[in-house]
Amino acid sequence: MVELSASSLVPTDAPPDGSIPTRMAYSVELTYKVNQPGADFLFNVQAARTKRQRLVSEFLELSPAIASQEFTDPLSSMRLLRLRADTGLLVVRYRCVIDLIHARNDPAEVPETWVCSLPGEVLPFLYPSRYCESDILSAFANQQFGSLFQGYSRVQTICDWVQRHIVFTPGSSDATTTAVDTFKNREGVCRDFAHLMIALCRALNLPARFATGFDYGADPALGPTDFHAYVEVYLGCRWYIFDPTGMAIPMGLVRLASGRDASDCAYATIFGDVTPLARWLTVALLAESDSKTNAPMRFEKALSTDDGPTHCTWRRAVASPMLPSLM
After folding, report:
1. Which CATH number does the domain 2-100 belong to among 2.60.40.2250, 3.50.50.60, 2.130.10.10, 3.40.50.10240?
2. Quick one: which of 226, 229, 230 has its CA closest to 281?
3. 246-257 pLDDT, tens digit each
């Protein structure tokens, strides 16, 4: 069991921009039956730690108590937990309290960035990937969105198009479903919505990445709280949040992982003979009587909890000429 307190987690410097945080509490419990000894697990359930996503406290428990190792990706702040388990039950419990300190910008002042000016760390998110075949969707993307003003508003238009034309249908896709499949079938779940939006953005030379969090604000009729896939697009100097399903409240999204597509961001990757038994999650807003907190709400500002590479200095909207699509 590992428990970390606020004093060991929260940076002592003031929040960026002097913003009032949104304080969220998240917990997850995963139960597995290990059928053969020596099963290896990679978990991605711990909240990422960034300047705008600050851990106040967190608690991790493994039952039975077994050795584990944690690795943090230096670019995405994604945290991987690795462990090996013998036969029997394995239970992973994690909970945290986290402050989200959003950058909020006027969408009209958020520009697209030319490829020649993108930081090197961002370039991999221009390419087609396993689930996001931007090359195949390039002709459609340019016909549908290529003539629009190049800025945040164009990305929002892509997000809105996906939300209007794809029907959220549980069970309609599987682990092999790609953006092109979703484009053809016009139905899917959150990961499919995200893959399609990402592919359309990349087809227009917009760096876009897959992100995982929780469906805070989703209609309870859709079922219990669950992991949620959404999109971050690099505009100006930040990664901005978009939810093409329209289900979650973007201001309440706590980022766990980000990558090229779902293949980089699975909450659990298992090597061995293992049977998943149960998954339980909760996410809630916390408000303290002696402090101010921002309740998640829907509004028109461009939101980000990732300021991007520190050496980027562009902040103002810049009109840019049409760039060729990826070949």
Report:
1. 2.60.40.2250
2. 226
3. 998 899 899 999
**Cα(152)–Cα(271) distance, integer angstroms:** 41
> From CA 146, how far away is CA 169, in angstroms rounded?
29
Crossing angle of helices 190-203 and 138-145, rounded to 10°: 80
pLDDT for residue 18 is more than 70: no
| Cα distances (Å, whole numbers) of residue 315 to 75, 109, 112 | 21, 8, 10
Tens digit of each residue's pLDDT (9 = 90 or more) over 299-309: 889 999 998 87
Strands (E), 10-156: 22-34, 39-43, 53-63, 68-72, 79-85, 88-100, 103-105
Asked if 206 and 155 touch (Cβ cutoff 8 Å), the reply is: yes
**Which CATH code of 3.10.620.30, 3.55.40.20, 3.40.50.720, 3.40.190.170 fits the domain covering 103-264+293-304?**
3.10.620.30
**Six-digit token pair at 80?**
């991987």
Q: Which of 27-31, 52-56, 206-210, 298-302 bottoms out in mean pLDDT, i.e. has the lowest?
A: 298-302
Can you give the pTM of this predicted structure? 0.88
Burial, 134: exposed, middle or buried (Cβ in 10 Å; 0-12, 13-18, 19+)?
A: buried
Cβ within 8 Å of residue 120, ≥6 positions away: none
Would you say 241 and 303 are in contact if contact means Cβ atoms under 8 Å apart?
yes
